[in-house]
Amino acid sequence: MEYVFMPGEDSLLPDLDPAVQENLRELMQDDYLLLLDTFIIDAEKRLGQLRTFLASGDLESFRRCAHSFKGSSGNMGALALQQVCTLAEQAGIHGDAGAAGDALERIEQCYRQLRPQLHP
Known about the structure:
72% helix
């Protein structure tokens, strides 16, 4: 079954799932800040890659990058970001550069909202 993403659906989700964040704090303990820093560095790298892949028209690489970003966002409990990465992945699967561009804008917006919340 194909996932159909409705416009604005990501706005219905919280930026961060507090239960996931609490579990990560308990699990990682002293390494929690390192985990946050690693996610931030990785997210910013992926944003750059998504921009590059889109600009070059490499929608398969765009799809793979969006898929990876979706997974790391989900692991962090970044629900809205995870959801828009799903949209980007779908755009890549369908080879729709316009939808990919729209998805990338939404990913960047979600990340800008999320970024200040990634510190205890």
